[in-house]
Design brief:
By secondary structure, the protein is mostly helical. It is 70% helix and 0% strand. It has helices at 2-43, 49-83, 119-142, 157-164, 174-181, 183-251, 257-291.
C-alpha cells in the first residue's frame, strides 16, 4: 500500500510538471508575439524602448521556467522509474491532471474499522497481544509445577508427602522448590513484563491516534483542495478574458504595454497555481486511501458504529 501510494503521488507530481511545462511553453509563445508586436511598434515610434524591454524580460522569465520545469520533470521520471524497479528512463504518460478520473465525494458513515487494515495498526495490535501473552507466561513460571494426581487418579505421592509432613518439603524436588525460592526474581520478571505490556498499550493508543489524525488531515485536504481548485479555475477564466481584452486594446492603441504585461503575468501565475492545486487534490485522495488502509467501497459506507470518529468534511 505504501509503494502504491508512493508511485501514484510521484506520477501526479510528474503530470503536474507536464501541465506546467505546457503552460510555460504557451506563455513563452505569447510573450514572443508581444515582443514581435512591440518591436514593430517601436520602429513606428508608437512606443518607447522600455515597453519592448519589459516584454523581452517576461519572455526570458517564461524561458527560464521552461528550463526549470524540464529539469524537475526528468528528475521525477527518474524517481518514478526507481519506484517501479527499473533503470531511470522516460515514463509513459496516461491521462493529464484534468482528465484523471476523480472518485465520488467521500461518503458519509465510513466505519472506523477500516483503519484496522493499516499496517501500523496491525503491527501495534500484534505487539500488544504478544505483550499480554507474556504476562500470563510470567505468572505461570511463578507457580510450582508438579503432578497433583497419580496414575489411578488419586493424589500424587509428592502432593501427599508435602501436605502430610512439612519436613518433606524438599523431597518433591526442584519442580516446587525452584519457583518458590526464586519467587523474588520471578516477581521482578513479571513486573518487567507488565511494564512492557503497559508500554505496548501506550504504543497501540498512540498508533490509533496517529491513524485518526492522518484520516482527518486527508479528509480536510480532499475537501479544501477541491474548493480551492474550483475557485482558481474561475480566476483563470476571468484572467483569460482580461488578457484578451487587454491585447485588443493594446493592438488598437487604446491601452499601454503595462495592461498587457500585468494581465499576461497574472494569468501565467494563476495557471501554474491551478495545476499545482489539481495535483494537490489528487494527492490528497491518495493520502486518504493510505490513511484508511486501502480506500473504501460504497458497501462500507453507512455502517459506522456509534462513537466512530471517521467523518467526511473534517472538523465538523
Amino acid at each position: 500500500m505504501q509503494i502504491v501510494g508512493g508511485v501514484a503521488q510521484a506520477y501526479f507530481d510528474l503530470r503536474q510538471f507536464d501541465m506546467q511545462l505546457e503552460i510555460a511553453q504557451r506563455t513563452l509563445q505569447a510573450w514572443e508575439e508581444s515582443v514581435r508586436i512591440g518591436q514593430a511598434r517601436l520602429r513606428q515610434g508608437v512606443i518607447n524602448r522600455l515597453d519592448v524591454d519589459q516584454f523581452e524580460a517576461e519572455r526570458e522569465n517564461a524561458a527560464a521556467r521552461i528550463a526549470e520545469l524540464t529539469r524537475q520533470m526528468v528528475q521525477k521520471e527518474n524517481e518514478l522509474s526507481i519506484l517501479l524497479g527499473r533503470n531511470p528512463s522516460r515514463v509513459s504518460r496516461g491521462r493529464s491532471l484534468t482528465e484523471q478520473m476523480m472518485p465520488p465525494v467521500v461518503p458519509a458513515g465510513l466505519p472506523s474499522e477500516l483503519l484496522q487494515r493499516r499496517p501500523d495498526v496491525v503491527q501495534a495490535e500484534q505487539g500488544l497481544a504478544a505483550a499480554t501473552a507474556r504476562i500470563g507466561m510470567a505468572k505461570a513460571d511463578r507457580f510450582p509445577k508438579l503432578s497433583i494426581t497419580g496414575i489411578l487418579g488419586v493424589a500424587s505421592p509428592h502432593l501427599s508427602r508435602l501436605v502430610a509432613n512439612e519436613t518433606e518439603f524438599g523431597v518433591v524436588g526442584p519442580s516446587l522448590v525452584g519457583p518458590l525460592l526464586n519467587a523474588q526474581i520471578l516477581g521482578f520478571q513479571q513486573e518487567a513484563v507488565e511494564a512492557q505490556a503497559r508500554q505496548a498499550v501506550a504504543q497501540y493508543e498512540q498508533t490509533i491516534l496517529v491513524a485518526f489524525r492522518e484520516v482527518e488531515d486527508a479528509l480536510v485536504g480532499v475537501s479544501t483542495a477541491r474548493e480551492q481548485a474550483d475557485a482558481q479555475e474561475r480566476q483563470v477564466n476571468a484572467l483569460r478574458s482580461a488578457l484578451h481584452l487587454a491585447n485588443l486594446r493594446y493592438k488598437g492603441g487604446l491601452a499601454n504595454y503595462l495592461d498587457v504585461l500585468i494581465a499576461q503575468r497574472s494569468l501565467f501565475d494563476a495557471e501554474l497555481s491551478l495545476a499545482a492545486t489539481r495535483r494537490l487534490h489528487l494527492v490528497s485522495i491518495v493520502q486518504l486511501y493510505k490513511a484508511l488502509g486501502g480506500g473504501w467501497s460504497s458497501d462500507e459506507a453507512g455502517r459506522e458504529r456509534p462513537g466512530s470518529s471517521v467523518t467526511p468534511g473534517g472538523r465538523g
